[in-house]
Amino acid sequence: MAKMYYEKDCDLNYLNGKKIAVIGYGSQGHAHALNLKDSGCEVCVGLREGSKNWAQAEAAGLTVKTVAEAAKWGDIVMMLINDEVQADVYKKDIAPYLEEGNALAFAHGFNIRYKQIVPPTGVDVFMAAPKGPGHTVRSTYVSGKGVPCLVAVEQNATGRAYEIALAYIAGIGGARAGIMETTFHDETETDLFGEQTVLCGGVVDLMQCGFETLVEAGYAPENAYFECIHEMKLIIDLINKGGVAAMNYSISDTAEFGEYVSGPRVLPHEETKARMRAVLADIQDGTFAGRWIAENKSRGRTFFNSKRDQLAKHPMEQVGEELRRNMIWGGDKDLDTASN
Ligand SMILES: NC(=O)c1ccc[n+]([C@@H]2O[C@H](COP(=O)([O-])OP(=O)(O)OC[C@H]3O[C@@H](n4cnc5c(N)ncnc54)[C@H](OP(=O)(O)O)[C@@H]3O)[C@@H](O)[C@H]2O)c1
Fold first, then answer.
1. Residue-wise pLDDT tens digits, 210-261
2. 30, 108, 135, 230: which is the annotated catalytic residue?
């Protein structure tokens, strides 16, 4: 069992006298900044000039500065801007102001793992990574609970990096749920692997294949949407609550029998795992990271944008939109307030 920490292991006093600059006010940024403020910490938000979120952060009672000013002000600088822009922003607006004994913090290890950011040796480098979207980090904190978090320390310059990281996670509410220790290396590689092969890449392609198969066989797209896409959440909620056994308990025996018979037909285990190992190898040797960095730096996101446009035009997205508009099923319309 990996090492776990809870509220009893975290001491918020390690943040006493420390000024925390939260860089970014998106999904994670707003949650960290507001939760830390409500936990009694001294916080400011760092944003680019002209940011659409500047007024929103101020309206929420937070002090807002430019990224450079915030980095200069803060003893702990938490990087909560998009991973692909962090390195440039770090070089220009953060690195010049980092002082010995400061801490540089992350919610994902990409830029440290792939050496896009190489912090000076005199600063602590830690990770406080909620395993959930920022809006859930905020809503669970407000309701007295928390989202489980990962903690990792890449550099322990002060000798207190773990204590500070755990205090930070307690400040955002994560200690209420549990904190698991990891490394920047493992968090980055497993996170990329999970989202590419199972959570985002895997799930979207699986649903798309199911939807297309039914529609091409002449069934109504609305039926295909319900059976292959809408019900995914209901099934995942059951697995999330009690494992695959809980799902199998709730579904019919016919569905469970079909799971055993047809699951391995559409996902041949050894072949799928061989393909997954190839994806993992690209993550481990930096091929994927290099491709993503190039996509942003030299290719103007042409592949990324064309795939996004293509998906928006796919009938499963259009049928889904139409159905969601015409049915009442308790879904949140506003993604920003969605519960997960
Ligand atoms: N979202 C999640 O569920 C999740 C979960 C765990 C970890 N993380 C990690 O958390 C970090 C933040 O992700 P996020 O999803 O919260 O990001 P996000 O919602 O996309 O928010 C991005 C923020 O970065 C700012 N920003 C973008 N480009 C910038 C630039 N060039 N200069 C200055 N500010 C810039 C944006 O500023 P404006 O306000 O001006 O637009 C915005 O406030 C990432 O490392 C991510 O991997 C995310």
1. 999 999 999 999 999 999 999 999 999 999 999 999 999 999 999 999 999 9
2. 108
Q: Is 28 annotated as a binding residue?
A: yes
- Per-residue tokens: 108: 């994902």
Q: How far is the C-alpha of 318 from the C-alpha of 208, rounded, in Å?
A: 12
Contact call for residues 119 and 155 (beta carbons, < 8 A): yes
User: How many residues does this entry show for the chain?
Assistant: 340
The pair phi, psi for residue 180, each rounded to 5°, is -110, 135
For residues 255 and 257, what is the distance between their CA atoms, to the nearest angstrom? 5
Find the residues whose C-beta lies inside 6 A of ligand 1. Answer: 24-29, 47-48, 51-53, 67, 80-83, 85, 89, 107-108, 129-130, 133-134
- Centre of ligand 1 to C-alpha 85, Å, is 9
For the question of residue 108 being annotated catalytic, the response is yes
* CA–CA dist 217, 67 (Å, integer): 54
Q: What is the pLDDT of residues 15-62, one digit of tens each?
A: 999 999 999 999 999 999 999 999 999 999 999 999 999 999 999 999
Distance of CA 69 to the CA centre of its chain: 26
116 is in an annotated binding site: no
Q: Is 39 exposed, middle or buried (0-12, 13-18, 19+ CB in 10 A)?
A: middle
Is 104 strand, coil or helix? strand
Tokens found for residue 84: 């692909």
**Whole-angstrom distance, CA of residue 34 vs CA of residue 164:** 18
